[in-house]
Write a structure and sequence with these properties.
It is built from five helices and eight strands; from the N terminus they run αββαββββαββαα. It has helices spanning 2-11, 48-56, 123-127, 166-172, 174-197, and strands at 23-27, 36-42, 68-74, 84-93, 97-111, 114-121, 135-147, 150-159.
């Protein structure tokens, strides 16, 4: 249920008026080593249903979502498409290497006029992954929020401390916080391009 709690923290920070330019905010939570972050911006022409359908199409991420090196859905009776999907994902982070994890992505319905999809890490399944393929996520939550002409993206993530050395840990925590606004904006722009081209 952690993804629902995360989503509530994001919803509480939605702007009161429709944004006219990119907005980003971040906040600390529960003493975690990285901040939670949320960005939102106008995207003329974005269609909520098409956008959420693209987000849920995890088997098509490679080649369409930047830095995703491997992504595949996993059959699991607990998470049944089209409402939810379990999947494995490996992301190549420039300079820092690959991170991989197993996640579950849920259609969350409408909240405050926004169509929402949110995800969370499967911890035991992720812990069982080999570190030979990359470092593993300790936690990873996120959400896409979209209404006509507006798209938002939220993220909270960090690697397992024992999987990375000191310098990489700093780059993936404090360094990630410093770069979060730029990364979130790029993710929004990339997902919007893909969804609108489908």
């Amino acid at each position: 249920m952690e993804h629902k709690d995360f989503l509530e923290r994001v919803l509480a920070r939605l702007p009161a008026t429709t944004p006219t330019s990119f907005q980003f905010q971040s906040w600390s939570h529960a003493g975690r080593p990285t901040d939670e972050g949320f960005g939102i911006c106008p995207v003329p022409g974005v269609d909520p249903e098409k956008l959420i359908d693209a987000v849920m199409a995890v088997d098509s991420y490679v080649g369409n979502v930047e830095h995703v090196a491997e992504c595949r859905s996993i059959s699991d009776s607990r998470f049944v498409p089209p409402e939810a999907v379990r999947f494995y994902q490996r992301v190549d982070i420039p300079v820092l290497g690959a991170v991989h994890h197993e996640l579950v992505l849920h259609r969350m319905g409408e909240h405050g006029g926004y169509h929402v999809a949110a995800w969370h890490v499967l911890r035991s399944e992720t812990d069982a992954l080999s570190t030979k393929q990359g470092f593993r996520s300790d936690y990873n939550f996120g959400a896409w929020l979209v209404k006509p002409g507006v798209l938002g993206y939220a993220l909270s993530s960090a690697p397992k401390r024992d999987d990375v050395g000191f310098l990489k840990w700093k780059a993936l925590t404090k360094g990630a916080d410093a770069a979060a606004g730029r990364v979130v904006k790029a993710n929004i722009e990339g997902m919007a391009r893909w969804a609108m081209s489908r």
